[in-house]
Design a protein that fits this description.
The complex is a heterodimer.
Chain A lengths: L2 H17 L1 H21 L7 E7 L4 H10 L5 E6 L6 H6 L5 E5 L3 H6 L4 E8 L3 H25 L8 E8 L6 H13 L1 H17 L1 H6 L5 H30 L8 H25 L3 H19 L11 H9 L1 H15 L7 H26 L1
Chain B lengths: L1 H17 L1 H21 L7 E7 L4 H12 L3 E7 L2 H10 L4 E5 L3 H7 L4 E8 L3 H25 L8 E8 L6 H23 L1 H8 L1 H7 L4 H29 L9 H25 L3 H18 L11 H7 L3 H15 L7 H26 L1
Parallel strand pairs in B: 1-2, 1-3
Antiparallel strand pairs in B: 3-4
Helix pairs in contact in B: 1-10, 2-7, 2-10, 3-6, 7-10, 7-11, 7-12, 7-14, 8-11, 10-11, 11-12, 11-14, 11-15, 14-15
The chains are: A alpha/beta, B alpha/beta.
Chain lengths: 371, 371
């Protein structure tokens, strides 16, 4: 394999990318732009839950209870209703996440030391919001109880205290978790540009012209790969600048290691892209497959927001088959834990294995079609 | 005019059907995605690995470990006695959190003067997992505390008897939340993918010029390209809905007619935007990359990953322009809550307005490219 021919292909490809401003944006600048846009969504940690309340007791105690529920702004009373029938529409329309019903006799029960019933009707259609609502209401009820106990001289103290520390992200800020994670999503773009370039050459027929030259299949693929990996690294650096300078996410690891591992990620993504490009006839189909089987699942299955599901072997298999899953781990480990290759052997080897394996298959299929 | 549009539609359908692989993929890939996602969807966050550093080795410290293990969110998997071992497990990502029980814990608790402290250290590189694990650990300690207090005669009466009634999804099953949303995403992806290649492909292959020589007017071209795409989007919805009901048993408490109508409204909006993308892209590659970016943005702004109320205000405004956001509300409300047109009026109006805007833009952009 001739180095010179490979470099020639690479140069041609880079010229293609740089020449068209639109292309250039899509391949090189779009990851940074996407990171900027998407990370903002996750930068807010505080959320408010809306409540509807129905107080049949109307005592000063019930009012104080309701006040204590909403004391810290996480729960907000948006509606006060007087009939059961009013609650259901509010839940259906999504105007409130939960309704709290205080029956008559609430205050009396408390004063006489009996358990006082309170009903919470919770919108379960969104289980995240639903369980958050339940958790918040229960927690605040406990606080109300404890504060009553303290003032009422009750021996209700907790014998065991919990002291918590959060490592790597002391404030448990979702931005710090999401920005490194999102890198794996936005860096899919340079990888996909490669697969599209390959299919396009096949589709428009310019590939045949290339095959008339002394360039071999391996040199062709390698040249293209190198071109897209180098522009990909440029886009990685741009995205890193956004992450570190704009979002102020700490970067505790080594830049060289990160770029090296990003190359591994590119190899895996591009390898997959090459295999797909070889299997499908048109760019349209290639796009379709990549979007549906690769990009969108990466949002949900790569451990980006909720951790990887361990509920079934199939689920784990699917998650670990996606390159993005490994890179999310790599990215977060280098950014937040500041650790190096020693701790990242498994994801790195997985990505390398995927990349080299896919490229090998891709190259053989490619040769067969052209040769 | 109608005849010309009809002719164009027939041509589109024939071209579409000719690409067997694509037709196959349009049927299979979304189904595959639905199955993958449904399999892997976490039923809440469970069995987070926990490393126990018990420096006390008393009966009580072991009881606390048992209580922690009893939480479904936690799984006591490692026992260490040294800090560096604990640190390594967290660094490696093998454990999500660590609980440290100091020496003398059991003895001092029985002596019961001041509260004893237990330290919980959590890996916050994934903030969702961190929050859930932390609150699970705190709850476990609280339970342990309460039982301890009870068994030693320090009774804390439950003042407030909290009864929850979870509507629409009594078991808080995450699948009822995720699967309708996945359906919405799939319908979105297919409609966008099919529409967005409408013009770019013809331009690239050179057949657009041939189209321009025909008596087709701008409006007719747009309709001729758009209607087949809407048709495919609609057919895709029917297939996916059938699979969702038959295989995944999505509940359906609302009107199918209403859902179909609103889906049609949604698909039309997405197709319009896809046509815009295809008009402004010079090559298919650009169109495809544009679609990828669009998909990433729309999925993030859709309110599924992050609730809209939790987004920064400026981005909440942007999310109002994303049809997917309204559609997710629609599909979930109709299937889980049995919502009718009355309750979904805001969403329907928003989709209508977006449709008008999008199609105006699409028409103008086609004009500029074509004439």
């Amino acid at each position: 394999m001739s180095l010179r021919r490979m470099v020639t292909v690479m140069r041609k490809e880079i010229l293609h990318i740089v020449r068209d401003a639109r292309n250039f944006f899509l391949v090189t600048v779009s990851p940074a732009f996407l990171l900027f846009l998407l990370a903002y969504i996750f930068s807010f940690d505080v959320g408010q839950l809306s409540l509807a309340v129905m107080d049949f007791d109307r005592s000063s105690l019930s009012r104080r209870y309701l006040e204590s529920l909403t004391s810290d702004q996480d729960l907000v009373i948006d509606y006060v209703v007087s009939r059961y029938e009013e609650i259901e529409p509010l839940l259906v329309e999504g105007k409130v996440e939960a309704a709290v019903v205080i029956p008559p006799g609430f205050a009396e029960a408390i004063r006489s030391g009996q358990p006082a019933p309170v009903q919470a009707i919770v919108d379960g259609a969104d289980p995240f919001a639903g369980s958050e609502a339940i958790g918040s209401l229960q927690a605040r009820s406990s606080v109300f109880v404890i504060s009553r106990g303290a003032s009422g001289g009750l021996e209700g103290s907790e014998p065991v205290e919990v002291r918590t520390r959060a490592w790597y992200n002391a404030g448990i800020k979702s931005l710090l978790s999401m920005v490194p994670g999102l890198m794996s999503i936005v860096l899919i773009m340079p990888a996909m540009a490669l697969s599209l370039a390959l299919t396009k050459e096949k589709e428009t027929g310019t590939l045949e012209g290339l095959m008339a030259t002394p360039v071999s299949g391996a040199e062709y693929l390698a040249g293209k790969l190198l071109a897209y990996i180098s522009t990909g690294l440029v886009s990685t650096i741009l995205a890193l600048l956004v992450a570190i300078l704009w979002f102020r996410v700490p970067f505790r690891g080594s830049l060289a290691v990160y770029l090296l591992l990003t190359t591994g990620y590119f190899l895996a993504c591009m390898g997959t892209a090459v295999v797909i490009a070889n299997l499908v006839k048109s760019q349209q189909t290639a796009m379709f497959v990549v979007l549906i089987v690769f990009i969108v699942p990466s949002f949900f299955l790569a451990g980006l927001i909720s951790p990887i599901s361990t509920s079934s072997p199939l689920a784990m298999l699917v998650s670990y088959a996606l390159p993005s899953t490994h890179f999310v781990e790599i990215s977060r480990t280098v950014f937040l834990k500041g650790l190096g290759l020693g701790y990242l052997l498994r994801p790195t080897l997985s990505l390398l294995g995927m990349g080299l394996g896919a490229l090998f298959i891709g190259l053989r299929a490619f040769k067969k079609k052209v040769g | 005019m109608l005849l010309r549009v009809a002719n164009l539609i027939v041509k589109e359908i024939i071209q579409f059907a000719r690409d067997r692989v694509l037709t196959l993929f349009i049927l299979l890939a979304p189904t595959l995605q639905l199955i993958l996602m449904a399999q892997a969807v976490e039923r809440g966050i469970n069995e987070q690995p926990l490393v126990m550093m018990d420096l006390d080795h008393s009966y009580l410290s072991r009881q606390l470990a048992v209580e922690l293990d009893n939480s479904q969110e936690l799984d006591v998997r490692y026992y260490v006695s040294r800090t560096d071992e604990m640190r390594r497990l967290l660094d490696q990502g093998s454990a999500r959190l660590a609980v440290v029980i100091p020496a003398g814990f059991g003895r001092k608790l029985l002596g019961a003067s001041s509260p004893q402290a237990v330290q919980v250290i959590v890996d916050a590189t994934n903030t969702v997992a961190a929050s859930v694990s932390l609150s699970a650990a705190s709850s476990a300690v609280a339970r342990f505390s309460a039982e301890l207090a009870a068994s030693y005669g320090l009774v804390t009466p439950e003042f407030i008897d909290f009864r929850t009634n979870v509507r629409f999804n009594p078991t808080l099953d995450f699948r009822y939340f995720s699967i309708p949303a996945q359906l919405g995403f799939i319908i979105y992806q297919v409609a966008l993918a099919v529409a967005s290649l409408g013009l770019a492909r013809e331009r690239e292959l050179g057949t657009l010029e041939q189209l321009m020589v025909t008596p087709l007017r701008r409006l007719e071209l747009v309709l001729g390209k758009g209607i087949p795409a809407i048709g495919i989007g609609g057919a895709n919805f029917l297939v996916m809905w059938f699979i969702g009901r038959a295989v995944f048993h999505i509940p359906m408490h609302g009107s199918f007619l209403l859902l179909s109508g609103l889906t049609l409204l949604f698909v039309t909006a997405v197709v319009g935007w896809g046509l815009f993308i295809s008009a402004v892209s010079r090559t298919q590659q650009q169109a495809i990359l544009f679609v990828f970016i669009q998909a990433m943005v729309d999925i993030t702004f859709s309110g599924f990953l992050v609730a809209v109320e939790n987004m920064p205000p400026f981005l909440q405004t942007i999310s109002r322009l994303v049809p997917l956001r309204y559609y997710l509300v629609i599909i979930r409300s109709v299937s889980l809550k049995g919502a009718g047109l009355q309750e979904l009026r805001p969403q329907a109006i928003a989709l209508l307005a977006l449709n008008v805007g999008i199609w105006l833009i699409a028409m103008r952009s086609v004009a500029r490219r074509v004439e």
